[in-house]
Amino acid sequence: TGGKDRRSGLILTIPLCLEQTSMDELSVTLDYLLSIPSEKCKARGFTVIVDGRKSQWNVVKTVVLMLQNVVPAEVSLVCVVKPDEFWDKKVTHFCFWKEKDRLGFEVILVSANKLTRYIEPCQLTEDFGGTLTYDHMDWLNKRLVFEKFTKESTSLLDELALINNGSDKGTQQERERSIDLNFLPSVDPETVLQTGHELLSELQQRRFNGSDGGVSWSPMDDELLAQPQVMKLLDSLREQYTRYQEVCRQRSKRTQLEEIQQKVMQVVNWLEGPGSEQLRTQWGIGDSIRASQALQQKHEEIESQHSEWFAVYVELNQQIAALLNAGDEEDLVELKALQQQLSDVCYRQASQLEFRQNLLQAALEFHSVAQDLSQQLDGLLGMLCVDVAPADGASIQQTLKLLEEKLKSVDLGLQGLREKGQSLLDQISNQASWAYGKDVTIENKENVDHIQGVMEDMQLRKQRCEDMVDVRRLKMLQMVQLFKCEEDAAQAVEWLSELLDALLKTHIRLGDDAQETKVLLEKHRKFVDVAQSTYDYGRQLLQATVVLCQSLRCTSRSSGDTLPRLNRVWKQFTVTSEERVHRLETAVAFHSTAEKILQECPDQPEAFNEMDQFDEIEAVGKSLLDRLTVPVVYPDGSEQYFGSPSDMASAAEHIREKMKLVSLKKQQLRQPEATTPES
User: What is residue 134's three-state secondary structure?
Assistant: First the structure.
């Protein structure tokens, strides 16, 4: 209980109860309790209080006798607390004081209220009328914690010492083998340390039960002995645990380094093995858009597999960078070598993937341009294979323009194909630089032959189309010329018809005198020359259409009826012109004769000898008047009058007036002739 006798010896209290007491258990318990104090404390002896107030005498006697065997040397006084006047007769049969020499200690029977004669009240608990504060359950709990801590810490110290000592062995393999065998302690060091600190804190407190109203107590000898023992164990544990943590850290670092190295080698082995083999087998570029797209899809699958390993590379690189920042000097070289090896392989493989992707993209673009160009050439060829049957020259011009645009588009497409092909050939020529020593000359030759074959084929097709375009262009230009000739010939017919119409409707005057009539006759001849030129121009155009039709091997749609129309109009014009010339010439003769007669002087006798001129002029005038009333008859039997009836009437009236003047002149000449014989 912590109480002491007057010799400063510890007081050991043995409370007995009504139930049967096991002597073996009591012996073990006493051995345990007597092992707690220090040797110095044991040397001062013990005072044992056997509380027999609730037990039988034979039990008490057995316990006292057992003390002789358990602690004979340490016991100096045994106080048996008896019930009041209950054992008096029994005691007479066994006197402990007589057995002092045999027992080795003094035994006294004493009532509880008289126990203070031998022990101070302050060293006795309340059970014996004393004032010493004692909580057995609290003491027991502390002892259990202490015993558990002592046991666990001692075991843990042995384990940690084995682990730590094993880590200090000579070779790395021995250290790793030792650590592998004893790496994990049986208990958690942190938990044991925490338990020890809590126990030490409890032992160092000044209040036993921790209550604020408790009575002050002097630390018991067993607790004074426990404190340094706990402190010593804690110090040893901290030392060994610190070494153990360092061992764990080194082991963790080595394990992490080994895991990183293993993962690095996994990444490197896959990239240089299956990954590189996948790229080695993928060398083609395809021979069409669909084939290139299929190769791109296959390459995307390869890239997807590589992406998983590249993700591992990124993670490993971060881990290595973290270790480099916090690593030891001895690990820096190895870590940097791993990092460099990993980076070299990954960057090289990524470059190869990117190169392959760019090559396939260039191949796809090349085949796309080739397909577009092929479609353009097919369209152009289809356009050239269709016979030209335009309606007019404008549609031919539009078709020719479309043909030129298509040819220009083909030229641009072929130029683009050459640029794409040359770029693709340049990339293929660089493929050998990452072939891992593999001879890709044969595979590259197939790709190069394919690309050059496509470009040559497109060039030949384009050349054939150009030749056909030249022929078609010439034919279309001839057709344009043919249509132009036909249009101009038809226009010549229209012009000639207009000249004929103008001749009939506006060329109706015969002149007021001979001079004016001669001027009209001269103008008419020029007018006829214009018509003749128009007719000749139309004939030449029609002859050109015949030649062009023979060249084009086609029959003109319009020249067949244009020539008859031209000849018909020209004949009508010729007939009308001749009639006009005849009338004008008759009018010139009429006006010349009339003017001569009218201008002659009556004193000239020779005039009277020419009376026959009057008859002639009258005949001419009548003939002219008759012509004015007669229509122009064409070869086809049709008729046409010059001008309107009023116009002809006006011209005839003028001629009649002049004939009247001539007749009047004739009469004047005849009158003098009649009067002369009479005179």
Answer: coil
